[in-house]
Specification:
The protein has 4 helices and 32 strands. It has helices spanning 113-116, 211-223, 327-331, 483-487, and strands at residues 19-20, 51-63, 66-73, 82-85, 90-96, 104-107, 130-136, 142-148, 165-171, 181-196, 231-240, 251-253, 258-265, 272-274, 281-286, 289-297, 300-302, 307-313, 319-323, 335-340, 374-387, 390-395, 409-411, 416-424, 429-433, 438-443, 446-447, 452-453, 455-458, 463-469, 476-480, 491-496.
């Protein structure tokens, strides 16, 4: 299967990350990019700060004689696993060893704007060759992560195209112990390039296309003075925990083990799938938040910046490939070997049966979310190739202006708001709200409740309703988590009045 048929047209324009010669391999710590375990790669408390993070350029060995240079945290990818205690204040020192100002975003946490790590919320930059101390109380409990939050634009060596991604686990006051051990998995692509066209197939998402929204895009395309489709981003290197499939240590398991996988899609632009032949994933949490109805699925579909925590019972001995459904992406590295003890042979891959991803199966059936105090209407649209060959994205007709950074929506503390999102484009958008979580109320034409997230995929020509309570005052950023979409207008600010 060719890139899941995500990219219908292609043409390489600008390769960025370089593959270095074999002689550079001597500079690589071979243990840094192995699967992250609960007890490994945790930054130990120091005398002054609990944790220290250094942003710098590092070399990552992604495969045999394949070394890339990228911006990293503490010289490794993924960045170190940070474990916090729910409700326990922490101090983090962040050092920027690069030549450019940086932002450090605590994705999914309820922190104030000056800590959140977004310039749009007026978070101060960490200056080049400077540092910033951050003192805060990590919350809410669960699987979060940290990453850069700078605009990359047409620079594929900036923003989340780099290796600036690391996992966070905030330990709850009471931990569910219905598993034997944890494995942290970070999915990530490297060596990006621009290409023309490339619409993403939507057949893996449940839901129906709304003709009115489809007609809006068709009308916009007919009226557009720009004929070619805007640039999209492709990749040459695909990794799990910084290693291509077959490189590095496998995940070794024992028969009967219950393994809790914490899986993060750390991509800048890609929706990812993940399957383990002969096994099912019991999804217990989405974006770090326990789901009301844990359910078993054969395939995980994970939008950019989404996280899934799922338990797998190891009851099918063998040596298996856990990897992406795309033959191309898996062949280029998006997989990892899962090896049962006392098993020999070559890793095997068996494609699962087609499966529709439906958030609502994890929610409360037949129970609707309570009515909000106010509904905020949002229409997302694409202006084809309108910004020097790049698509320009708008919310209610306006692209976000980085020069003035105005607030588009206004909140009153304590009120419950519903974001009624309508997607008048054929693209999938992983929508993210900073400093708050939201509850899925309606998605893909289905009502649901109890599913708490901070990122959710909105299908092409579909609608989605999410509810949140305005309980964290200050400027709050809302955006599509596709770096390419965010950079070209797909953002909006909320303020509290």
């Amino acid at each position: 299967m060719d890139r899941r048929k995500f990219l219908k047209w292609g043409g390489v324009v600008l390769p960025v990350a370089s593959v270095l010669p074999a002689r550079a391999m001597a500079h690589i710590d071979h243990e840094k990019s192995e699967p992250i375990k609960q007890s490994e790669q945790i930054i130990q408390p120091g005398k002054s700060a609990d944790y220290a993070i250094r942003i710098n350029t590092g070399l990552i060995e992604v495969g045999p004689q394949q070394i890339i240079s990228t911006t990293t945290y503490n010289g490794q990818f993924p960045g170190p696993l940070l474990r916090f205690k729910e409700g326990q204040p922490t101090i983090v020192d962040i050092y920027n060893d690069t030549d450019k100002p940086e932002q450090f975003h605590w994705h999914g946490q309820f922190v104030p704007p000056d800590i959140d790590g977004a310039a749009e919320e007026r978070t101060p930059y960490i200056p080049a060759h400077g540092m910033r101390r951050e003192v805060f109380t990590p919350n809410p409990a669960g699987f979060r992560f940290y990453h850069t939050h700078v605009i990359a634009g047409n620079n594929l060596s900036a923003g989340q195209y780099n290796g600036e991604v690391g996992p966070v686990y905030i330990e709850p006051k009471k931990e569910d112990g219905h598993y034997d051990r944890e494995e942290f998995i970070v999915l990530k692509e490297f060596d990006p390039y621009f290409m023309r066209g490339g619409d993403m197939a939507m057949d893996f998402l449940s839901g129906v296309v709304i003709p009115e929204l489809k007609a809006m895009q068709e009308k916009a395309e007919k009226e557009s003075p720009v004929t070619p489709k805007g640039y999209e981003v492709g990749y040459k290197i695909f990794t799990i925990n910084g290693r291509r499939l077959g490189h590095g240590k496998p995940i070794r398991v024992r028969y009967g083990e219950r393994v809790l996988f914490h899986i993060l899609n750390g991509s800048a632009t890609e929706t990812r799938s993940l399957a383990l032949p002969g096994h099912h994933f019991k999804v217990v949490a989405l974006d770090g938040n326990p789901v009301p109805n844990p359910a078993e699925v054969p395939v995980l579909w994970i939008g950019t910046a989404e996280r899934i925590s799922a338990i797998v019972e190891m009851k099918n001995p063998g040596i298996w490939i856990m990897g992406d459904l795309s033959d191309d992406d898996r062949g280029n590295g998006m997989g990892i070997v899962v090896e049962y003890s006392n098993q020999k042979g070559k890793p095997r891959w068996i494609a699962p049966k087609p499966f529709k991803w439906d958030y609502s199966i994890f929610g409360r059936p037949n129970i609707q979310s309570p009515d909000p105090d106010e509904v905020i209407e949002m229409l997302f649209a694409k202006q084809q190739g309108a910004d020097k060959g790049f698509n320009r994205w708008t919310i209610n007709g306006s692209a976000f202006d980085m020069a003035s950074m105005p607030a588009m929506f206004h909140l009153k503390e304590g009120k419950r708001y519903r974001l009624h999102m309508r997607n008048a484009s054929d693209d999938i958008h992983p929508m993210h709200l900073h400093r708050h979580s939201f509850e899925l109320a309606r998605i893909g034409g289905k009502s649901t409740s109890g599913i708490i997230k901070d990122v959710a995929m909105l299908g092409g020509f579909q609608e989605m309703d999410v509810d949140f309570t305005a309980n964290n005052p200050g400027l709050t950023l809302f955006h599509c988590h596709m770096q390419l979409h965010m950079d070209f207008g797909f953002m909006a600010l909320f303020d509290y009045i």
